[in-house]
Amino acid sequence: MSDDALLFVLPEDHPRLGAALAAVGELECAGTPAVHGWLQAHGVPADSELVRIVPAGFEGFVPEDAERLPVPLSEQETLRVEQACSPRSVTDMETELLSFRETTQDWRALVQRALTAGIPAPRIARLTGLDPQDIGVTGAPGE
């Protein structure tokens, strides 16, 4: 183990910075008593989206009020963390946005299928994040 990283608990009201610990795959340091104890002390499970990691040199991205723990990483683990923290390409983001558009274009049909299957409208609203008034309404969500 040679390279250091910074493990931190992201305050809930902050944008997602760094990479989720669970997203980088298994790290040797994550199984240590020190990390387990630190996570327990802060009341968060290791697979929480709030448990983030950044490679050395990216400490400036960590909010000042975030709980922090320096951790050692192997060279290969450092590469995985760096890749997980790298910004996605514009093409990847545009592809994701197109996928979102395709998913949301058929939202009315999906809601109708759910209603036909017997799922109550309030449950559909909770599961989809749609405004309850939009369920059964002909306009787009939020209109």
How does this model look, in words?
This protein has two domains: 3-85, no CATH class; 90-134, no CATH class. With 143 residues, it is an alpha+beta fold. It is built from five helices and four strands. Strands 2-3-1-4 form a four-stranded antiparallel beta sheet, with helices on one face. The relative contact order is 0.17.
Counting DSSP H or I runs of 4 or more residues, the number of helices is 5
In percent, how helical is the residue content?
25-40%
Q: What is the gyration radius calculated from CA atoms?
A: 20 Å
Strand content: 5-15%
| Domain module count | 2
Per the principal axes of the C-alpha atoms, what is the gross shape? elongated
- Identify low-pLDDT runs: 137-143
Task: Measure the end-to-end span.
Answer: 54 Å
Give the integer mean of the pLDDT values: 84
Number of beta strands: 4
The largest pleated sheet is described as: 4 strands, antiparallel
Helix-strand topology string: EEHEEHHHH
Strand adjacency order, main sheet: 2-3-1-4
Give a quick summary of the entry.
With 143 residues, this protein is an alpha+beta fold. Helices cover 38% and strands 15% of the residues.
Describe the protein's topology.
Blueprint: E1 3-9, E2 19-20, H1 33-41, E3 51-55, E4 67-73, H2 75-85, H3 90-105, H4 107-116, H5 121-128
Antiparallel strand pairs: 1-3, 1-4, 2-3
Which key features would you list for this structure?
2 domains, 4-stranded antiparallel beta sheet, disordered C terminus, elongated, 143 residues, single chain, 38% helix, alpha+beta
